[in-house]
């Protein structure tokens, strides 16, 4: 029997079994009362009345008041928040200790149009929260995120580094499993298209347990989009305008009753930028040095729409979540190259390549979710079916000016065109069940299928003078199709006590990979099964201090574009190509930490170690004077280090949060060559000072520093930058006007160097990073 068919049968039987599991009934008590208007004293009918457990957004019970304003609601013994909601009236909340039947006095609701003094209770919402599992980031608390994207949020996140091309590393390790609302999605291929204003929070889990995919060396980044969960109608709007005409506008709205919730958000983004890149490469055998300079300008116009609904009936919740993304990008990259002899400095080769590139991206992600709720809140059952699609169509028009130093029309002597049609499909089917075994123990179990397809059709043509037309080059053009299926099941047992909590998990994943290169008819199939154990423990020393220890075994499979062997020859002397022989990385990850939480501060200390077998890294080789950059499996890589994350209120008006991460990296690529063995120490730190000033003003200063970091053949150099942000609040904090100055000292750039037995190379890349943004936002 095929694995996919077997998995479908097991999935269906398990879902049917879980759905029909019963649940125990606890003793319940009754709350009654009457609701009237504050001004007229008339009874209020159709008021929505709901009981919430503190800190929860989903009610444990709800009802409506009748024609006489009377209401009645039942729930089990406990402490609750009793909330009342009616359009046109202020929401009201009462604390209730339900240890017997309760009859409340008449409760008055205040009309929204009454001009009454009101008491506003504000609570501090830390931008970063650290717990036993990882970090939770609240983007709205960092003013540097205004008008930005997901990458801007991650740049200001502890332990995270963002490279020149948007690649993410955690604690010096690449390969992250990025999720949207807890699900795999094809839309995560372009993180710079997800606006910061659409993101509710980000969860970073460096050492996830068996509940999560074993995919990715560095861990999990879960992007939670805004949907709104408070009763009533709520919304917010944001408009940002900056230098070079940078624009970002967005609006989010939701309406929730006790029976349903609907939400939607739209974001428009126009981003313009300029940049430069310089590369110098010396090939020792040829005794020649290549110097290349690239100037670039680009503009991106994007639209993002997220929307959905939740429907509550009985003990059931059905939800739909959708996300649509569309963008158009245009770039002009002009590359100047000259090759000279080292001894005489004589010019050997000179040319200019001007690439005018347009790209259209469209993507759609949607999910249907069923959740069964139980009176025991520790018991849950959820089924998810989701599908995402992304299409990227890119056109490159390349003008070549050989034996010339300037891209003048009279120097034009070559033209090339390239067309890329890339489609990605991701389908997810998942069921998760949690049930307590006793007051101290519970089990979790689940099944998941992740089915993906990547179809890249690349057509490359050259202009032929003799026929005055473009002719396809079959040696470069290619169509590469990648498909994989990952079927998984997991089981977790956890136990908690006043002093010690632990979680044991085991995940099994069956992987099937099928690649097909249409040009040559080559097909490559792989299938394998792996087990991934995990352990998480927490020892509570006292109310303020805890120790944690976690371990997980993980895998990082080579991505589709890394496996595609056909080259990208945008630059004919510096070529990038894939490697169809790549094998997955196998990772062992260990972490030990200390959590200290006090009333106005917290400090997290983590010691971590990671061992990677079959380390995937990019290496550069020289063939016939041409540089080829391609991925390869190295023997091993090891990293170990320490991390500090601290948050504190120095005074009621001054808050500081920051992080410091230091680690040692060791890469062993001796299976390729002696020069692919490297090791080094690296560190980074981030610090954010937030000041609450009189008259509704606030000020924020954000600093980032990343030291030099080694690669297999060299190292990336250090970088640092500072952002400053000002904000003035209006209308009881419902509105705000902000000014953000990014990279005040214009220091942010990427640079690095490589040294091998055959060549040396250095690069310097600088985008326009210093600019000013003005933002206005309003919530209702």
Automatic annotation (TrEMBL):
SUPFAM superfamilies: Carboxypeptidase regulatory domain-like, Porins. Residues 147-220 form the TonB-dependent receptor plug domain. It is found in: Cell outer membrane. It comes from Cyclobacterium plantarum. Belongs to the TonB-dependent receptor family. Residues 372-778 form the Outer membrane protein beta-barrel domain. It comes from the Bacteria. It is a multi-pass membrane protein. PANTHER family: PLUG DOMAIN-CONTAINING PROTEIN, TONB-DEPENDENT RECEPTOR-LIKE BETA-BARREL DOMAIN-CONTAINING PROTEIN. This is TonB-dependent receptor. Keywords: Cell outer membrane, Membrane, Receptor, Transmembrane, Transmembrane beta strand, Transport. InterPro entries: Beta-barrel_TonB_sf, CarboxyPept-like_regulatory, OMP_b-brl_3, Plug_dom, Plug_dom_sf, TonB-dep_rcpt-like. Pfam families: CarbopepD_reg_2, OMP_b-brl_3, Plug.
């Amino acid at each position: 029997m095929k694995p996919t068919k077997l998995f479908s049968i097991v999935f269906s039987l398990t879902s049917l079994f879980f759905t029909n599991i019963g649940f125990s009934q606890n003793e319940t008590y009754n709350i009654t009362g009457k609701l009237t208007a504050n001004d007229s004293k008339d009874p209020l009918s159709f008021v929505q009345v709901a009981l919430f457990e503190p800190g929860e957004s989903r009610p444990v019970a709800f009802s409506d008041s009748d024609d006489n304003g009377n209401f009645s609601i039942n729930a089990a013994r406990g402490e609750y928040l009793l909330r009342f909601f009616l359009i046109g009236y202020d929401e009201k909340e009462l604390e209730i200790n339900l240890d017997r039947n309760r009859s409340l006095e008449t409760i008055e609701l205040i009309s929204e149009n009454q001009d009454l003094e009101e008491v506003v209770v504000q609570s501090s919402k830390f931008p970063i929260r650290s717990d036993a599992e990882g970090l939770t980031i609240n983007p709205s608390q960092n003013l540097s995120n205004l008008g930005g994207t997901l990458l801007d949020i991650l740049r200001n996140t502890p332990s995270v580094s963002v490279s020149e091309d948007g690649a993410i590393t955690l604690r010096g390790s690449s390969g992250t499993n990025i999720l949207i609302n807890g699900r795999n999605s094809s839309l995560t291929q372009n993180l710079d298209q997800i606006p910061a204003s659409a993101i509710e929070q980000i969860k970073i889990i460096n050492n996830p347990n068996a509940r999560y995919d074993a995919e990715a060396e560095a861990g999990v980044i879960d992007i939670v989009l805004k949907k709104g969960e408070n009763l009533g109608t709520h919304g917010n709007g944001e408009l940002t305008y900056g230098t070079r005409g940078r624009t970002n506008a967005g609006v989010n709205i939701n309406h929730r009753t006790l029976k349903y919730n609907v939400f939607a958000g739209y974001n428009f983004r126009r981003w313009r930028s300029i940049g430069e890149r310089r590369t110098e490469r010396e090939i020792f055998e040829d005794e020649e040095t290549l110097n290349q300079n690239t100037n670039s300008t680009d503009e991106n116009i994007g639209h993002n729409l997220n929307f959905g609904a939740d429907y509550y009936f009985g003990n059931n919740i059905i939800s739909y979540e959708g996300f649509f993304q569309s963008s158009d990008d245009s770039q002009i990259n002009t590359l100047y190259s000259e090759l000279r002899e080292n001894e005489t400095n004589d010019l050997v080769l000179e040319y200019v390549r001007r690439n005018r590139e347009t790209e259209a991206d469209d993507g759609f992600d949607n999910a249907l979710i069923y959740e069964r709720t139980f009176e025991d809140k520790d018991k849950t059952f959820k089924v998810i079916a989701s599908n995402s699609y992304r299409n990227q169509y890119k056109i490159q028009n390349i003008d070549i000016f050989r034996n010339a130093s300037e891209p003048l029309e009279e120097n034009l002597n070559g033209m090339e065109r390239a067309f890329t049609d890339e489609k990605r499909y991701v389908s997810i089917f998942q069921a998760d069940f949690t049930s307590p075994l006793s007051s101290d123990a519970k089990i979790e179990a689940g099944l998941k299928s992740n089915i993906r397809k990547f179809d890249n059709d690349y057509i490359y043509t050259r202009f032929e003078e003799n026929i005055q037309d473009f002719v396809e080059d079959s040696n470069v053009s290619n169509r590469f199709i990648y498909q994989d299926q990952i079927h998984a099941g997991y089981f977790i047992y956890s136990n908690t006590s006043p002093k010690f909590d632990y979680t044991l998990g085991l995940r099994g994943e069956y992987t099937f990979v099928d690649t097909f290169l249409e040009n040559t008819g080559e097909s490559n199939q792989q299938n394998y099964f792996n087990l991934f154990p995990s352990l998480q423990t927490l020892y509570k020393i006292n109310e303020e201090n805890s120790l944690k220890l976690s371990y997980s075994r993980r895998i990082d499979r080579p991505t589709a574009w890394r496996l595609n062997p056909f080259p990208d020859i945008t630059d004919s002397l510096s070529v990038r190509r894939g490697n169809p022989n790549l094998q997955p990385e196998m990772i062992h990850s260990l972490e030990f930490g200390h959590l200290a939480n006090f009333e106005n501060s917290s400090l997290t200390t983590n010691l971590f170690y990671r061992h990677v077998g079959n380390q995937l890294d990019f290496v550069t080789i020289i063939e016939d004077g041409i540089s080829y950059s391609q991925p390869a499996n190295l023997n091993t890589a090891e990293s170990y280090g320490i991390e500090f994350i601290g948050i504190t209120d120095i005074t009621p008006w001054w808050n500081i949060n920051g992080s410091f991460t230091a680690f040692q990296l060791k890469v062993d690529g001796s299976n390729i060559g002696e020069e692919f063995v490297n090791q080094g120490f690296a560190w980074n730190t981030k610090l954010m000072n937030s000041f609450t000033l009189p008259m509704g003003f606030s000020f924020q200063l954000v600093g980032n520093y990343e030291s030099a970091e080694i690669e297999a053949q060299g190292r990336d150099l250090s970088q640092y930058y500072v952002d400053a942000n000002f904000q003035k609040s209006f209308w009881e904090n419902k509105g705000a006007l902000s000014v953000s100055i990014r990279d005040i000292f214009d220091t942010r750039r990427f640079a690095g160097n490589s040294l091998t037995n055959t060549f040396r190379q250095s690069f310097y890349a600088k985008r326009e990073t210093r600019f000013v943004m003005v933002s206005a936002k309003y919530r209702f």
